Amino acid sequence: MENIKNKLGFICDMDGVIYHGNKILDGVAEFVNWMLENDKKFVFLTNSSERTPHELSMKLERMGLQVTPDHFYTSAMATAEFLHNQKPDSTAYVIGEAALTKALYDKGIYMNDVNPDYVVVGETSTYSFEKITKAINLVMKGAKLIGTNPDITGPVENGIFPATGSLIAPIEISTGKKAYFVGKPNPLMLRHGLNKLNCHSRDIAFIGDRMDTDIIAGIESNVDTVLVLSGVTAMEDIDKFPYRPKYIANGVGDLVR
Fold it and tell me: Which candidate in 13, 214, 224, 254 is catalytic?
């Protein structure tokens, strides 16, 4: 683990690495305080599009951690950046929470439910048949289908919840159009994290709990990967994949103990 501790910075997933729902995981406070005390660069990179960086900062504060909003980068922000680079001043019909809409507004992408350039889907608790029908018809008329992330499920305290991959599937099936997903395992998301830290990939370690999004994204970005077993992946699951993480730990606390 000395190789990991000597890194200049860290990119960390959140769900399953830092917390489950509203419960902080064992060793997280120790790890975060160690990064702060040792002047490590770090960013929390989350596929979730439900919260703004400020809201994520407040969530960690309620768990006893003091982390400023500039340490967070979400799939909503990455999606907004992607659409801005693809087509500045474009419009979108959005199925998602306010944080996704805000990220799009911040990049000059405005709401349009008549003839948008894009249909954008992220996590939401207000999913409805009416919204799916609207999205299907807009895509059939030519709007491009974008997902903030491809995750099928996400972890919560009492189990799992349907994530963006599940929510967007009916639109894909009904239209015959495949969505483009911006979040992990798309290396684009990790590249944004590296740019935010202003570090070379060799000086960073990426910590995640999912083989199919976190670890593969790290490998494809040439970043040393750390799989923690505090989330959805168990030790026996690793051999199901044709690639492996460089390091394995029970949780982030193991990295500094």
Answer: 13
In the chain, the largest separation of any two C-alpha atoms, in whole Å, equals: 56
What is the per-residue pLDDT for 145?
A: 98
Angle between helices 187-197 and 75-86 (to 10 degrees): 100
Q: Which pLDDT score is estimated for 22?
A: 84
The number of folded domains in the chain is 2
Can you give the CATH number for the domain in which 156 is found? 3.40.50.1000
Q: What share of the chain is helix, strand, coil (3-state, %, to 5)?
A: 40, 20, 35
Q: How far is 78 from 82, CA to CA, in rounded Å?
A: 6
CA distance 108 to 255: 40
Give domain status of residue 61, yes or no. no
Answer yes or no: 15 catalytic: yes
What is the per-residue pLDDT for 155? Answer: 67
DSSP H or E stretch at residue 105: helix 98-106
Look at residue 257 in the predicted model and tell me its pLDDT. Answer: 81
Name the CA radius of gyration of the chain, rounded.
Answer: 18
Q: Which of 157, 161, 210, 159 is nearest to 183 (CA)?
A: 210
Check 15, 209, 214, 254 and give the catalytic one.
15
User: Taking the complete model, does pTM exceed 0.70, yes or no?
Assistant: yes
pLDDT < 70: residue spans in the chain: 155-157
Assess whether 214 carries a catalytic annotation: no
**Given this model, what pLDDT does residue 86 score?**
97
Which of 85, 140, 98, 147 lies closest to 115 in space, CA to CA?
A: 140
